[in-house]
Amino acid sequence: QLQLQESGPGLVKPSETLSLTCTVSGGSISSSSYYWGWIRQPPGKGLEWIGSIYYSGSTYYNPSLKSRVTISVDTSKNQFSLKLSSVTAADTAVYYCARQILTRYGDAYYFDYWGQGTLVTVSS
Amino acid sequence: SYVLTQPPSVSVAPGQTARITCGGNNIGSKSVHWYQQKPGQAPVLVVYDDSDRPSGIPERFSGSNSGNTATLTISRVEAGDEADYYCQVWDSSSDLFVVFGGGTKLTVL
């Protein structure tokens, strides 16, 4: 059974960089069938996609966050990571990592496995 | 970018049928996926590719998609179905590839 686990600081100061890692177990991050994504959810609000990465390192990001986001992958550790720079209180959220799988039509993606999420609070 | 519109809330009595809609321009031409999120938990995929169910999801959950509206239908609603539900599509026509609806709170009366 595939499992994803987020890890990283729960408290980040304004203007600093938020850094999280997602460790994948029960499967290989190097599979050609999947992308790996980050999604966040501010308290009491809906889901917002941040960005996704392929095992080769190919990435794509939410345009609204693109200037501040970097997602990277470490296949040797079966992990992928998120960095979000210049954070403000608006970046306070539960951050989820998830596996992104292709639809049967081969033209779109959805998320079939999710981590439990980790709350990151931006505060001085 | 593509916009998905969901009603903020839907209420239904136990044993009845709940229908949660997801509106979008010509959404019938896209694959729609649905997630259930209970308080304090991660989202769980309940329907993918408009109408398919992952293993372990009850047959009470079904989906349809046509025209400008996709619908998640929950038959014989149980108290345990009370949750937030989100629809999601992939929009390759813009830079915002992954689009979520705003979510619908299902209340079981």
What layout of secondary structure does this protein have?
The complex is a heterodimer of chains A (124) and B (109).
Chain A: E1 3-7, E2 11-12, E3 18-25, E4 34-41, E5 48-53, E6 59-61, E7 69-74, E8 79-84, E9 93-102, E10 109-114, E11 118-122
Parallel strand pairs in A: 2-11
Antiparallel strand pairs in A: 1-3, 3-8, 4-5, 4-9, 5-6, 7-8, 9-10, 9-11
Chain B: E1 9-12, E2 18-23, E3 33-37, E4 44-47, E5 61-66, E6 69-74, E7 83-90, E8 98-100, E9 104-108
Parallel strand pairs in B: 1-9
Antiparallel strand pairs in B: 2-6, 3-4, 3-7, 5-6, 7-8, 7-9
SS strand fraction of chain A: over 45%
> Which segments of chain A are poorly predicted (pLDDT under 50) over 5 or more consecutive residues?
none
Provide mean pLDDT of chain A, rounded. Answer: 96
Return the structural class of chain A. Answer: mainly beta
Distance between the termini of chain B: 36 Å
Oligomerization status of the protein chains: heterodimer
Rough shape of chain A? globular
What count of helical segments of chain B does DSSP give?
0
Helix content of chain B: under 10%
Gyration radius of chain B, to the nearest Å? 13 Å
Helicity level of chain A: under 10%
Query: Into which percentage range does the β-strand content of chain B fall?
Result: 35-45%
The SSE string of chain A, one letter per element, is EEEEEEEEEEE
- Give the helix tally of chain A: 0
Biggest β-sheet of chain B, characterized? 6 strands, mixed
User: Biggest interface, and residues per chain?
Assistant: A-B, 26 and 28 residues
According to DSSP, the number of beta strands of chain A is: 11
Tell me about the biggest sheet of chain A? Answer: 7 strands, mixed
- CA radius of gyration of chain A is 14 Å
**What form of chain B results from the Cα inertia axes?**
globular
